[in-house]
Amino acid sequence: MPLSPDQIAEIEAARSTPRPTLRAVSEGMEAHLYRAHEVLDHGFIRVIDYMGDDAAIVQAARVSYGAGTKHVSNDEGLIRYLMRHWHSTPFEMCEIKLHVKLPVFVARQWIRHRTANVNEYSARYSILDREFYIPAPEQLAAQSTVNNQGRGAVLEGAEAARVLEMLKRDAGQAFDSYEQMLSQDGQQGLARELARMNLPMNTYTQWYWKTDLHNLFHFLRLRADAHAQYEIRVYAEAIAACVKDWVPLAYAAFEDYRMGGVTLSAKAIAVLKRRLAGEVVTQEDSGMSKGEWREFEGVWG
Question: What span, in angstroms and rounded, lies between the C-alpha atoms of 48 and 44?
């Protein structure tokens, strides 16, 4: 269970005592505040706080660019213009703070996005809970034969059972040793900061993660993509659902230009122009590498 009964009661108590405010409020995001959105088997994301809304993006852009944006007739058009032309600073006016519970190996992948403020649960001071991520059977897959960092066919039958048993057994044994090493019941034991090194990567950790909307969109573009690892992608998808309610105009532009759009190189543009002119273009005379050509064909045929 991601949240204990006491934590759920604390959340409900906070939501039952709203306070008036003069700051910008997003009704869509208010519905998400504090509530835990479950992810994986023991994880969750919770919106703890946020600043700004679609109007804050527009306000910042008009201050920044002044008369240069007056030809844009409405907020949606301006936001789409900003997204289309890669203007980033107006989107930095919106911020969000999340409470995330996630497996350690997902956290290590997540922390590569170095554009946020992070404070993680400290296993130097506190004893971790006995909670591990154990993949659902449909997520147990072999190594891909075409992608060095991806998954291939789903394991089945005896092989799936063998792997699942090892995951459960090893996690449990490691945590048993962790508990036995700690200073307790009168024995001297080992310091928590050292005992934690024996824990497996599928142990759950927690952190507060605060970032602005511009950098959050970059995170979502990479981690909510179909090619991202499943275990981080489901977190990104849960966050994206909150962002869509928070800044619907900005999120719609993001979906259109980033998630659903394609960036073309100068060589790719040249090939498209030649094709439109009726010329048959091959990889050999395109000026592209085999990898570039494969990606080009994946979008344009």
Answer: 12
